[in-house]
Write a structure and sequence with these properties.
The chain has 637 residues and is an alpha+beta fold. Helix content is 37%, strand content 21%. Strands 1-6-5-4-7-3-2-8-9 form a nine-stranded mixed sheet, covered by helices on one side. The chain has a six-stranded mixed sheet with strand order 16-15-18-17-20-19. Strands 10-11-14-12-13 form a five-stranded mixed sheet, with helices on both faces. Helix 20 crosses helix 21. The radius of gyration is 33 Å and the shape is elongated.
Length: 637
């Protein structure tokens, strides 16, 4: 087959452009990325060989070999792992073959620190080789295939693929170093990089070292092959023998990320079930964390033999941000991915891992709330999925949940909230929406604020679902402030005298009843009901859902996703009997509750309530006409 020239996927071209402009602050990271990829290739072949020993073809000792050619100015990274065929080359090196590529490219900003983390999340560290080279050549042969393939590119938008000759399986990546990167031709420089970033790799990293022996005329050059790394699985070592930097670099390797771990959990469990876990919670939220195709990022090993890198049976979906490895001792080496499903050993390991992770998070939340706030900002929405999905661990999950509230800017726990509940308060009040700042200004909160009642401000999409799933927490029901029946009159405010004074105030119930009846006629089918509010103190009106209807924010969410029938439920318009506008409308209703002016004013108030709730106005043109009319009659000459 002749040489075939192909173009990079548009996303790759953009990525390469950023890499070319020194995306990474430390260019030496290219070596870490290529070694990490080589290690993964060996792990994959080791697993495949469990059921097909012929793939090893007499070469069962995995290794990674680094070679430099000072005259040619090249450095090569070779492995005897799984290798690639032509289709693999195109898919793996020409495209970003992973879900959410559009979101990935949109998230690239040109800011080196931010983009470095994003690129790491997508496992495309191979492209970092273009930071130090003018051209990259890959020769590879997939285990079990007869044909080898060559891939060449200068990173400028195109690459070529052609047939090649290669005696053994695996992949060799040769980098033609640019003038600024010749330092990576020196043994000591390469040794320093490997020991810094790749010492944890469990496969030996080999390199020839040239030395001189003898004296005078008998002096001669001697080449010896040296192992640059410790070459033992990091998780098998004692914690006392591992420093923070080693943990950090292993996290970078196993997670293909560039941030630092927020929390490290390294434990060995012995007993009926034996396993070792080395798990990390990231500092930064992966940008595809909510993508439906996102997989787990915990690798499963059995007796140090790699099995799979996305074992869904190890952790529940709401802990999908956790990265690391689990090495089990009680599973057969030849276990298939299909056999992992519903495996009793894995089920017990999963129970233990979840308990440990939630326990460590609880410690952080209680002892270091400021550090925990960083975690919660990144992963709180994901944790709350567990409250909805995991009944067994619901209480433990609720213990680590934190919320914004009307009590201040700090995060609060449900325990904090319940400790501040007012006399007579029988519910945990909350309001849902898309933005915390907007929620703080919602008119539905006015009555609660007047009585000093704390309200949870919930702005994640999942909030609508977990609150409904729980219903009651420690005998206190969750209650949305956007629904009717708030029962605020039963709750004593901080100023008891103000409460007593309000109770003593007499209301012209006949005038109010007349107004409500007239507004119901004016608004017709636009509202479900019109009634006096006990929650408004400063605003004239607000919309609420009936006690048994769907929450207003949930209705909007469903309608936005094409479930228009969710928006069919009409709202209740509550009016503030003490507001000046309502007082004037009472007078208008007494004179003529069917006049055009009264009808226009009523509909303007309804439209105003819709705007505050982020609802669409049914007839913008009519709204503008009414507003102009009212302004014209009210403005002084």
């Amino acid at each position: 087959m002749s040489e075939e020239k192909l173009s990079f996927q548009a996303e790759v071209s953009k990525l390469l452009s950023i890499v070319a402009h020194s995306l990474y602050s430390d260019k030496e990271i290219f070596l870490r990325e290529l070694i990490s990829n080589a290690s993964d290739a060996c792990d994959k072949l080791r697993y495949e060989a469990l059921t097909n020993e012929d793939l090893l073809a007499g070469d069962g000792e995995f290794k990674i070999k680094l070679t430099v050619d000072k005259e040619a100015g090249t450095i090569s990274i070779a492995d005897n792992g799984i290798g690639m065929n032509r289709e693999d080359l195109i898919n793996n090196l020409g495209t970003i073959a992973r879900s959410g590529t559009g979101a990935f490219v949109d998230a690239l900003t040109g800011d080196s620190k931010k983009d470095m983390a994003l690129i790491g999340q997508f496992g495309v560290g191979f492209y970092s080789s273009f930071m130090v080279s003018d051209k990259v050549e890959v020769v590879t042969k997939r285990a079990g295939d007869d044909q080898a393939w060559k891939w060449i590119s200068d990173g400028q938008g195109e690459f070529t693929v052609s047939e090649a000759e290669k005696d053994s399986r695996g992949m060799t990546a040769t980098l033609f170093l640019n003038d600024e990167s010749k330092e990576y031709l020196e043994f000591h420089r390469i040794q320093q990089v490997v020991r810094t970033y790749s010492d944890h790799i469990a496969i030996p990293i080999l390199m020839d070292r040239e030395t001189e022996e003898g004296e005078g005329d008998e002096k001669k050059k001697v080449i010896t092959e040296e192992t640059l790394n410790t070459a033992s699985a990091l998780w098998t070592r004692s914690k006392s023998d591992i420093n923070e930097d080693q943990y950090k670099e292993f996290y970078h390797h196993v997670g293909h990320v560039f941030d630092d771990p927020w929390l490290t959990l390294h434990n060995t469990v012995e007993g009926v079930i034996e396993y070792t876990n080395l798990l990390f919670i990231p500092t930064s939220r992966p940008m595809d964390i909510f993508h439906p195709d996102r997989k787990q990022n915990v690798k499963l090993y059995v007796k140090r033999v790699f099995i799979t890198d996305n074992c869904d049976e190890l952790l529940p979906p709401y802990l999908r941000f956790v990265r690391g490895v689990v090495d089990a001792q009680d599973l057969p080496l030849n276990i298939s991915r299909e056999m992992l499903q519903n495996n009793p050993v894995l089920s017990k390991i999963k129970l233990g891992l979840v308990k440990r992770i939630l326990g460590e998070l609880k410690k952080k939340a209680d002892k270091k709330p400021e550090e925990y706030a960083t975690f919660w900002e990144a992963f709180g929405a994901v944790i709350k999925e567990g409250v909805y999905e995991d009944f067994t661990n619901r209480d433990a999950l609720l213990d680590i949940c934190r919320f914004k509230s009307t009590n201040g800017d700090d995060l609060v726990s449900l325990e904090d909230y319940m400790g501040r509940m007012k006399e007579g308060q029988e519910a945990i009040y909350y309001i849902t929406g898309e933005d915390v700042s907007a929620l703080r200004n919602s008119p539905q909160l006015e009555g609660f604020a007047a009585k000093g009642i704390e309200v949870l401000l919930l702005s994640d999409s999942v909030d609508e679902f977990w609150v409904s799933a729980i219903g009651i927490h420690k005998e206190k029901p969750f209650k949305s402030v956007t629904k009717g029946g708030a029962d605020l009159d039963k709750i004593k405010s901080e100023e008891k005298e103000a409460d007593d004074k309000k109770e003593d105030e007499s209301t012209d119930t006949e005038a109010l009843d007349r107004l409500i009846a007239a507004m119901k006629v004016a608004l017709g089918e636009d509202v479900k009901d019109v009634r006096k509010s006990n929650r408004l103190t400063g605003s004239a009106v607000c919309l609420v859902a009936d006690e048994n209807d769907m929450d207003m924010h949930l209705q909007r969410m469903l309608a936005q996703h094409g479930q228009s029938e969710a928006a069919a439920s009409k709202r209740i318009l509550e009016i503030n009997d003490g507001h000046a506008v309502i007082e004037k409308l009472k007078s208008m209703a007494e004179k003529d509750g069917t006049s055009n002016t009264f009808v226009d004013a009523s509909k303007l108030l309804f439209d105003q309530a819709c705007i505050v709730e982020g609802e669409k106005i049914q007839d913008p043109a009519a709204f503008a006409r009414r507003l102009s009319s009212v302004m014209a009659s009210g403005l002084p000459l």
